[in-house]
Amino acid sequence: MSSATAAALQTGSLLGGRHTAIGETKAQVLVDKQGQKVIFKTFRAGETMPTHDAPVDVLVTVLAGRLVITVEGAAAELEAGDYIVFPAGARHSLHCLHDARILIYR
C-alpha cells in the first residue's frame, strides 16, 4: 500500500473506545459522500431523541445497549445486533433504555 493510500485511510474502534472522543454532541459523522452519511451516535440510559423525520431512507444498527425506536407510532425495542429500516419522511423518535452505541446510515 502506498503512503498516500495509507494516509487517506480512516480507522478506529466504535466498540472498544479507540476512536476520537466525540464530546457533548455524542455524534460523529464517519462518512459523508454525495449526501449519504454514516453516523455513529452514543446515548446514555434515559436520553431521548425527539420525533423528527429524514428526507431519505434510514437504517439504524445497534452496536451496544438497548433502546426503543418509534416509527409512525409503532415502537420497536432493539438491542445489540438488531437493526431497523424506515422510509424517507417517516416520523420517528428514540428512547434509550441502557447506554447505547448506534450506527445510522442515511
Automatic annotation (TrEMBL):
Alphabetized InterPro entries for the sequence: Cupin_2, RmlC-like_jellyroll, RmlC_Cupin_sf
Domain Cupin type-2: 42-100
One Pfam family linked to the record: Cupin_2
Protein name, UniProt field: Cupin domain-containing protein
Native source species: Hymenobacter oligotrophus
